[in-house]
Specification:
Largest sheet: 8 strands, mixed, barrel
Strand content: 25-35%
Number of strands: 16
Distance between the termini: 5 Å
Amino acid sequence: MTARRFQQVDVFSADAMRGNPLAVVLDSSGISTESMQLFAQWTNLSETSFIDVPTDPAADLKVRIFTVSTELSFAGHPILGAVHAWLKNGGTPQNATSVAVECQRGIIEVRINQDHAGMTNLAFRAPQLLRTGPLEDDVLEWAISALGISPDSVVAHQWIANGPQWAGLMLRSADEVLAIEPDYKDLEGLEVGVIGPHVASSEADALAQRKLHEKPRKPGARAELEPLEPHTDHLAFDSQIAKAPADYEVRAFVSGEGQPEDPATGSLNAGFGVWLTDAGLAPSSYMVRQGTRLGRAGMIGISAQDDGVWVAGDCQTVIEGSVKL
């Protein structure tokens, strides 16, 4: 066994230990696939990344990605976390503003947005979807039943597979996303991602609607310039000025893995970003919160640009040392 440099990186959060942890082995040359899988199972994290010398001269580093049970051809948070660890350990990319990562899906470009105080903000370009189109009727019924939601809650659905075989559902609101109580046994065999927009809570929204009905707005008037009606309930005021924590709430369910709900998921949000921005179901730039029900606060930025859809987040090292593999 050989001592190898190791980091555990928190991905998709500016606040340490509120994102998605990733184990990174920085020099994995000579480690067998079986040993990589065994180590990933032992870490019991959603994924473990192994960095090696690339075989493609256009790439800066090679990354292999393992869950506790299998190797993935692509995943977002393992690529961002691996790039962060590689840069912090002296890695120098061929391009000063981006890193080319070789994985089984090919080369994934990662932009270096910011680097300060031990933390990097990185963004990867979403790969092309391998499977798309609406979910089949039986798959949709399977997902709805296992998630315990009403069919009426589903605004849209789509296959958004880009490595992981994500089935994507868009619900009416973030509240409905957060209320999901899945049956993990029934979900086994299906990777499901759910997204919903943040809107006012039902109580605050009811107060706001009542205010609008009681006092018709003047044509052309801006809501933020209209005086508030006196009200004893603080929600009447909050509903006018409170900011949502993000534009959308996301949850990712992968039954059968070490963590059946993922805290912050790059591949899923990449798939959602490609689908929703292309279909006009989301703006070209938006922010996602994920991991709320797990006590996390993952924040993921999505931006559809001329050169593709970019998925961004903060990364920072929490544990650093060596492992014997």
